[in-house]
């Protein structure tokens, strides 16, 4: 050590590691903070306050049916999926309207025939809510007037209760994604009931049919092609493949079609396509 030099202040030899000094650990070297059990819930609450759903949040489903056994089976089916959860049940029309207003589910599985208020009127009231959920109407009957009335009331899907469980789960996911869904059997019924031809006197048998054709006439040829495919139940991906365009282009088509025709959603486009004669029996 050089004369006059203080101990501990000399330079290290090149390549020699710094000596470890016990008891002088920097604060940042302390144990890292680990997430606590309640952190996930607080994060979800923050998303809720900001009006955004948490990332990968499950699809929130409400079930309406006057039969307890059917409500229970729907709950078991939905709760068995990782990406969805039942947030409530109702046994009648007024009950599901109140439940939807209180819990704001993403999707409602709606029976048609219930006491107090039928599923069609309940659907109409629920879809009138500010942040309305998507409604899938379920029925044992499948009568033509039920299909048409349900879609006119704002339903995004229509399934027979005899449909396989996988179809019901698919319906929840499809309508939650913003698409309309009709089972193949229901689609055939809808085509048969909504396809119209002019009467013998040259006038339309459907009141307002001329107006529907005027609304469709506003579409460009490419939009019209996409419109017809939507009416046949094709998804955006399938339409993109059929028209050889990108998925983003199809989304643009759909947005423009909804605006130009004054339609609320894809389900209304289905009704409009059949009422205007864009899609008929031969093409269904």
UniProtKB/TrEMBL annotation:
Region of interest called Disordered, as start-end residue ranges on this chain: 1-51
Ranges of residues in domain Response regulatory: 60-176
Organism expressing this protein natively: Clavibacter tessellarius
Ranges annotated as biased composition (Basic and acidic residues): 28-51
Protein name: DNA-binding response regulator
Domain HTH luxR-type as annotated: residue spans: 212-277
Keyword terms, alphabetized: DNA-binding, Phosphoprotein, Transcription, Transcription regulation
Keyword Transcription regulation in annotation: yes
Entries under SMART domains matching the protein: HTH_LUXR, REC
One GO BP: regulation of DNA-templated transcription
PROSITE patterns linked: HTH_LUXR_1, HTH_LUXR_2, RESPONSE_REGULATORY
